[in-house]
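The authors assume throughout that readers already know how a fold can be written as discrete tokens. What matters is that the chain and its backbone geometry are given together, residue for residue. A single example would do more here than another paragraph of explanation. For illustration, here is how one protein appears when written out as sequence plus structure tokens.
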Amino acid sequence: MTQDMKTNDGSETGGKSRMSRGWRAVLVVSLGLNLAVAGLVVGAAYRYNGPPHNKVSREDPILRALDKDARREIGRAMRKNRAGAPGIQQEIAAGFANMQTALRADEFDAVAFRAAMARKGAAFREMRAVGETALVDYISGLSKVQRTELANRLKDDPKRRKNR
């Protein structure tokens, strides 16, 4: 038993309900926005070529000049050395949290914000020092030939040449 339905204009739909133009437009706009967001996400992933933890190696020319295995070895050494100073990550997080608190305050406290930045900056400098120690230790273990090859890769880095 089929039941015919009548639309507002009196025509029959044969049991199938029709979507109004307004809802159809809403769905088309929604689909378009979803595709735009998906495109942004895919574009960002393509542009930055990996998660943020890889960004340091792409920004620092000496790390870019090292091969993947060398960067991994240095990363392991950093984690091992950082075990002696476990508070670095907590200090960075606390610095960011204090910055957010200062930004959200009814009255902006420039002194508190500057102190939060200094706290975060000190932790980053400590982490960088751990990384530099690991890098120097790694390079100290290289032969003269390996160091020369590294120097050549550093000299030939296309990103470095582009910034001259």
Summary: The CA atoms of residues 65 and 150 lie 6 Å apart. Residues 50-57 have pLDDT under 50 and may be disordered. The helical segments are 21-48, 55-59, 61-65, 68-82, 87-104, 110-140, 144-155, 158-162.
